[in-house]
Design a protein that fits this description.
Helix content of chain B: over 70%
Chains: A alpha/beta (268), B mainly alpha (254), C mainly alpha (254)
CATH architecture of the largest domain in chain C: Orthogonal Bundle
CATH superfamily of the largest domain in chain C: MetI-like
Low-confidence stretches of chain B: 248-254
Mean pLDDT of chain C: 90
Mean pLDDT of chain B: 86
CATH architecture of chain B: Orthogonal Bundle
Helix content of chain C: over 70%
InterPro entries (chain A): AAA+_ATPase, ABC_transporter-like_ATP-bd, ABC_transporter-like_CS, ABC_transporter_ATP-bind, P-loop_NTPase
Protein name (chain A): ABC transporter ATP-binding protein
Largest sheet of chain C: none
GO molecular function (chain A): ATP binding; ATP hydrolysis activity
Number of domains of chain B: 1
Shape of chain B: elongated
Low-confidence stretches of chain C: none
Number of strands of chain C: 0
Order of helices and strands of chain C: HHHHHHHHHHH
CATH topology of chain B: MetI-like fold
Order of helices and strands of chain B: HHHHHHHHHH
Oligomer: heterotrimer
Number of domains of chain C: 2
Distance between the termini of chain B: 25 Å
Strand content of chain B: under 5%
CATH class of the largest domain in chain C: Mainly Alpha
Number of helices of chain B: 10
Keywords (chain A): ATP-binding, Nucleotide-binding, Transport
Shape of chain C: globular
Domain ABC transporter (chain A): 20-249
Number of helices of chain C: 11
Chain lengths: 268, 254, 254
């Protein structure tokens, strides 16, 4: 019975109205087709990972979802409306944290930028900033400038600034690509717990297959030139995930094998 | 491609045309302004009767003489300060006390000591050119790869050999940038001295044209001085590219 | 400051004092005619006497005023125009090349034109100083605005920041190092042009003071004025450095 109920839940979730959908989305830039006829839906609360060889258009797909690019064909919708401009409930975490932070503002100042943009009154900001810094594990670094922080700390700060927007959706573009393995694992678990706590929808772009399976409810692999969907896998691994147990699970290894073969095949 | 090249020319051409039309249509009789066509005519006339060429020769003579002397002094001091940090530290207060004196403030001193003419102008240009050369060549020498200095020690080069064979060649691209900067300063200071007081060269020419209520000639001088400044800068940039390639120019940050 | 640095500083002051002593010796031995070269004692006496009578103080204030008004006007206009041009690709294509063309123009050449337009007045001086000082600031601002990290503009879009907010919170702070460097350069230009304008137009200030002293062969007064001009250059440049260090504290963290 319990098993059946779960299946029903899953089915219900499938039929739920999608939060983000790409309907035949196409993007041409300077005579080149970067993305062609992309059909993809993301359910509310889902953690979707996008993988693919470099140059397959995964970052471009994310920028379409963010409203930083407009599709030249088809449509990208958010909550039923066309996504033509960025919206405050959709936050984007860039890979190059060093360029995305304001070097002349302290950690607190960088978070404040998002609060100012949301017109949060000045007297409410310090409390919110302190809470956000605590959430991402930087409570003691409020007065530090980005240049005084390590790469991992800077990326935490960027995540905190995105959370300050109180987004329902988080778009992450290879956020941990430039970090060392230990820092990366710590941040993976933090992102999972932060987004689970607020039931945030996530699209996470990465070139690391293990990371994609470890984090995602679903993994989509893109084919390059032009970018389109090549493979779509549901990740049926229990949550909360665990860096050791999850990665040793036979299902994890099976998915990993499948994705690996897919990527291998696209690289020719 | 040709459209992209003409775009930057549109604005100045339009401005000149508007200026011309405005003066012609308003029948403006002014002691301070003249239409571009009259300016062009005055420029051609002054070039033809050699007043502008002679004035140019005088100005450039003073500017280049000052530039040469100032560059040599500045380069010598800059290399000395760059090689010996002891000398640099000992001279720091003296240099910082003299450097901020605006070059033009020396004008009256040079005037009573040397009178009007080339000499006083050259002295002031020299003073102005020493500082950028000193500061930048000092930085250039400090920036030489330490391994090169070790090589020169291992080879037991004498200080003179070391300066000629290692230091100057290694620092040359940046020294040339300093020289280009100084050349611009030399021209500016020379013209300024002539405008302020010294009765020779382009600066005196433009002042004379103003006092003679010849706005066409005055503006012709202005255009010519601008062209000289632009041409000098351009020529030195071309030389710099030829000698050191693009990398050196990019590194200069201009 | 560490103990060694202190010792070097003191040694450096001792060297400077040695040079002043040498100057005194040359003057005492009359190696150079006292008409041209007063000793430091006479220059100092003239400085003290000038301040005691109030003459020199009022001249100092005069020059400071010329410099400050011109420089401030140039800063405000230069930053505003530079921001306008630098933040628009269209403006950069059409206008920036013309400005680059004017960059090497010896700005003092505009003085005769300004005299023709405004006469020998304070207004002429203000125009000349502001005109000369605006270029470094405006060109630096254009460069600073054009060089803002594109990622930051995307952050601003993602946060849906308003246009004024983007200018004041992203572009202006990002361009600030360039702008301040331009303002520092302009400070020197403003001081030089203040002196030249005072010399030419007889406006109340140190430039006029040194010229009159030279004409009357009062060399002690002349040197007092030159020393004061050097001190002005020094103090304003130190003040600018302090402001830069304060405003750009985030840069030194790198």
């Amino acid at each position: 019975m319990i098993l059946l109920a779960r299946l029903d839940d899953a089915k219900a979730a499938r039929q739920q109205k999608p939060l983000i959908s790409f309907n035949g989305a196409t993007l041409r830039l300077g005579g080149k087709t970067i993305i062609e006829n992309l059909d993809l839906t993301v359910r509310p609360g889902e953690f979707l990972c996008i993988v693919g060889a470099s140059g397959c258009g995964k970052t471009t797909a994310l920028r379409l979802a963010a409203g930083l690019y407009r599709p030249t064909g088809g449509a990208v919708t958010f909550d039923g409306q066309a996504m033509l401009e960025p919206r405050r409930e959709v936050a984007i975490v860039f890979q190059d944290y060093g360029k995305a932070l304001l070097p002349w503002r302290t950690a607190a100042g960088n978070i404040s930028l998002a609060l100012e943009a949301s017109r949060i009154p000045a007297r409410e900001r310090p409390g919110r900033i302190a809470e956000l810094l605590r959430k991402v594990g930087l409570p003691a670094h409020a007065e530090k400038y980005p240049a005084e922080m390590s790469g991992g700390m800077q990326q935490r700060l960027q995540i905190a600034r995105c959370l300050a927007q109180e987004p329902t959706t988080l778009l992450m573009d290879e956020p941990f690509g430039a970090l060392d393995a230990m820092t990366r694992q710590g941040l993976q678990d933090e992102v999972l717990s932060l987004t689970a706590a607020t039931n945030t929808t996530v699209i996470f772009v990465t070139h690391d297959l293990d990371e994609a399976i470890y984090l995602g409810d679903r993994v989509v692999g893109l084919l390059p030139h032009p970018g389109r969907i090549g493979i779509e896998l549901d990740v049926n691994l229990s949550r909360p995930r665990d860096q050791l147990a999850t990665r040793e699970h036979p299902e994890f290894l099976r998915l990993r094998r499948q994705l690996f073969d897919f990527i291998k095949a696209t690289e020719h | 491609m040709s459209l992209a090249r003409t775009k930057p020319l549109l604005l100045p051409l339009a401005a000149l045309l508007a200026f011309e039309l405005w003066i012609r249509l308003a029948h403006l009789q002014s002691d301070s302004l003249a239409p571009p066509s009259a300016v062009l005519a005055a420029l051609v006339a002054a070039l033809a009767d050699l007043t502008i060429p002679i004035a140019t020769r005088d100005t450039l003579l003073a500017a280049f003489a000052g530039l040469a002397i100032g560059s040599i002094i500045g380069l010598g001091l800059g290399i000395a300060f760059g090689v010996s940090s002891m000398l640099d530290r000992l001279m720091e207060v003296t240099v910082e006390a003299i450097r901020p004196i605006p070059s033009i403030a020396l004008l009256p001193i040079a005037l009573i000591a040397l009178g009007f003419g080339y000499r006083m102008e050259i002295v002031i240009v020299t003073f102005a050119c020493v500082w950028p050369m000193l500061i930048l060549s000092r930085t250039a020498v400090r920036g030489i790869e330490p391994r090169l200095m070790e090589v020169s020690r291992a080879l037991r080069l004498t200080p003179v050999q070391r300066t000629i064979k290692i230091i100057i060649p290694a620092a040359l691209p940046r020294i040339f940038v300093a020289f280009r900067l100084s050349a611009g300063i030399a021209l500016i200071v020379a013209v300024t001295v002539e405008i302020a007081i010294n009765p020779l060269g382009l600066g005196a020419g433009i002042m004379l044209a103003q006092q003679a209520l010849r706005p066409d000639l005055m503006l012709a001088y202005l255009v010519w001085i601008g062209a000289i400044g632009y041409g000098l800068n351009l020529a030195l940039i071309v030389v710099q590219h030829r000698l050191f390639g693009r990398a050196a120019t990019a590194g200069a940050g201009s | 400051m560490s103990a060694t640095a202190m010792i070097w500083r003191m040694a450096s002051f001792a060297v400077a004092a040695g040079f002043v002593g040498l100057w005194q010796l040359i003057a005492n031995l009359k190696l150079v005619s006292p008409v041209f070269l007063p000793g430091p004692d006479r220059a100092w006496t003239a400085l003290v006497r000038g301040f005691a009578s109030g003459d020199l103080a009022s001249k100092l204030v005069g020059t400071l005023e010329h410099m400050a008004y011109g420089w401030l006007a140039a800063s405000i206009a230069g930053i505003a125009l530079g921001a306008l041009i630098g933040s628009s690709r269209l403006m950069r294509t059409y206008i920036a090349p013309s400005l680059e063309f004017l960059r090497p123009l010896p700005v003092s050449a505009i003085i005769p034109v300004a005299i023709a337009l405004f006469g020998l007045t304070e207004g002429m001086a203000l125009f000349v100083i502001a005109f000369g000082a605006i270029w470094p600031i405006m060109l630096a601002t254009i460069h600073g605005f054009a060089a803002v990290e594109p990622r930051l503009y995307e952050v601003a879009r993602a946060l849906q920041m308003s246009r004024p907010a983007v200018v004041f919170k992203i572009a202006l702070p990002s361009a600030l190092p360039d702008i301040l460097a331009g303002m520092r350069l302009s400070l020197t230009v403003a001081l030089i042009l203040s002196v030249v304008c005072e010399v030419l137009a007889g406006l109340d200030g140190l430039g006029h003071w040194v010229l009159l002293s030279a004409r009357a062969f009062r060399s002690a007064d002349l040197f007092a004025g030159v020393i004061l001009l050097g001190a002005m250059g020094y103090v304003t440049s130190v003040a600018m450095s302090l402001a830069e260090r304060r405003l750009l504290a985030w840069q030194s963290m790198r």
